[in-house]
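We now fix the convention by which a protein and its fold are recorded. Here is one such record, which you should read through line by line:

>
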Amino acid sequence: MKKEVGELETRYRVSMLGANSVYFLTAILLLTIGFYVQYKDIKKGLLLTEYVLILLPPLIYLFWKRENKKQFLRINPLKGRHMIFVILITILSYPVALFFNILFLVAVSLFGTIDQMPIPTPHTVSEYLLLMGIIAISAGICEEIFFRGFLMRAYERLGKKKAIWISALLFGLFHFNIQNFAGPFVLGVIFGYLVYETDSLFAGIIGHITNNGVAVTISFLGNLYLKNGFLSDSNAVQMPNTSQLIAGAFLMGIVTLITGTGAYFLFRHLRQKTTRAVAFEMMQQGWLEEKLPKLKYLPILLTMILYGYIAFLQISS
C-alpha cells in the first residue's frame, strides 16, 4: 500500500489550481479566438476550437508537469462488449439530457426571451458526413480528453463522486450558452460514471461521439422534412415559448421515464462486467500538496462570473 501511494505521489503532479487555471485560460481562448474564428467560418472555426484551443492546453500542461499522460488520462483499452453498453446507454440517455435541458429552459424563459443560437445543420449527405466529423468525432475526442480525462482526474483528490459531478458542472458551463447548460451537465455526469466504471477514457469518447452523432442525425432528418415541405422554415427556427416548452417537457418526461429506466438497468449490468478504477482512496493521500490552496478555486469563480454575464446578455437580447 505504501509503495502504491509513493508511486502516486511521483505520478500525479497536477495541482487543482493548475488544472483550474488551464480551464479558465481555455474558456478565455474560446470566448475570444474561438468565437471569432467560428464567426468567420463556423466549420473551420469549430475544428480550430476543438484541436487547438481545447485539446492543446491540457496536453501542454501535462507535458510541462512531466505527467504520464496515458496513465493520467486513462488511455486504457475498452472491451467490445463494454463499447456496446456505452453506445446503448448513451442513446437511451439522450432523451434524459434533453428533458432536463427543456426544464432548465422553462425556468430561463420566465426571465426573458432567448434567441435561437446559430448551429450548423446538414442539408446534404456530404454536409452530414462533414458535421459528423466535426461535431461528433472531433468534439468527442477533444472535449473528453479535457473534461473526463484532464479535469476529472485532477479533482479525484476530492473523491470519485465530487470529481464526476464537478467536472460535469464545468463541462456545462464551458458551452457558454444558457440554452445548452443542463443537457451537457447531465451527459457529463453520465460520461463520468462510464469512464470510472470502465477505467477507460474511450468510454467517454464513444459516448460523446454517439450523443453528438444522434443530434446531428436528428437535425439532418429534420432538414429533410423541411426540404420536402413537411415543416415551414419559420416554425423550425423560432424558439418555443414557455407554454410550448412546458408541453414539450411533459411529453419528453414520459419518454425519459422509459429510456432512463432502460439506461439505468444497462448501467447496473455494465458495473457487474467491469473492473472499476482503483486507488481513489489512496489519491487523497497521494496527490502532491497544493502550494497556493486558497487560490485553487479562483479561476473557476472567474469563469462562473463570465458565464453569468454572458447568460445575462443572452436573456436581455
